[in-house]
Amino acid sequence: MGKFVERFNTAERVLHWFVTASFFTLLLSGLGLYSRLFHGYFDLFGGGAGAILAHKYAGAVFFISSLMLFFNHAKEMFAFDEDDRKWFRSLGGYLSKNPEHINSGKFNAGQKAFGLFMGGATVVLGITGVINWIPESFPTVIVRLSLLLHGLFFILFIMVVVVHAYLTTVGNPGTLESMIYGNVRRIWARKHHPKWYKEVGGE
User: Fold this and answer.
1) For residue range 16-68, what is the model confidence (pLDDT) as tens digits?
2) C-beta atoms surrounding 139 within 10 Å
3) How far is it, in rounded angstroms, from Cα 32 to Cα 40?
4) First-to-last CA distance in the chain?
5) CB of 28 closer than 8 Å to CB of 39
6) With helix as H, strand as E and coil as C, how does the chain read?
């Protein structure tokens, strides 16, 4: 038995990086649209018009790839059990000096919550993005509500992604490798996702 076990296949990793690349393109092009304080970021796209164009097309890529990734893992995302409730009660042990590792499946409760938020937020951002793209086709009140929701979810998404980035790097060393190479060490899998490790043929 080798030292590694496959966690994500090639298609899943490609989808994840499409989501990541399009998200950061949206972030950099959208900041200048969100506030004049960030108009300097327009230079990355050759000006305001270029930033708007990049934002529109990156939005389409993000919407499609994000939903594809979500539905690919939907079965795991919606499957909450007693171990997940235990994870929520202890917040995964992140605030404890002596954290207890919960018997998590392929995704722990926090990752499932992140996935569900991402799926819902993608739908909201996609719908409001279309309305903002062609505002003349909708009543003024709908456009104003759309702009408000788009900005709100834009901020929420950034906050959640910052936490996600921390937990997949500094917070849980070894996690990022699974999305780069597809494999994780068996000792990592046994420690962080013991239920899943047993399901894939672990000890």
Assistant:
1) 999 999 999 999 999 988 888 899 999 999 999 999 999 999 999 999 999 99
2) 9
3) 7
4) 10
5) no
6) CCCEEECCCHHHHHHHHHHHHHHHHHHHHHHHHHCHHHHHHHHHHCCHHHHHHHHHHHHHHHHHHHHHHHHHCHHHHCCCCHHHHHHHHHHHHCCCCCCCCCCCCCCCHHHHHHHHHHHHHHHHHHHHHHHHHCHHHCCHHHHHHHHHHHHHHHHHHHHHHHHHHHHCCCCCCCHHHHHHCCEEEHHHHHHHCHHHHHHCCCC
**Which ranges of 73-139 would DSSP assign to H, the alpha helix?**
74-77, 82-90, 109-133
Identify residue 120 by its one-letter amino acid code: G
| Distances, alpha carbon 64 to alpha carbons 11, 29, 44, 97, in Å | 14, 18, 24, 41
The token duo for 30 is 């959208």
DSSP string covering 55-70, please? HHHHHHHHHHHHHHHH
DSSP conformational letter for 73: T
Confidence (pTM): 0.89
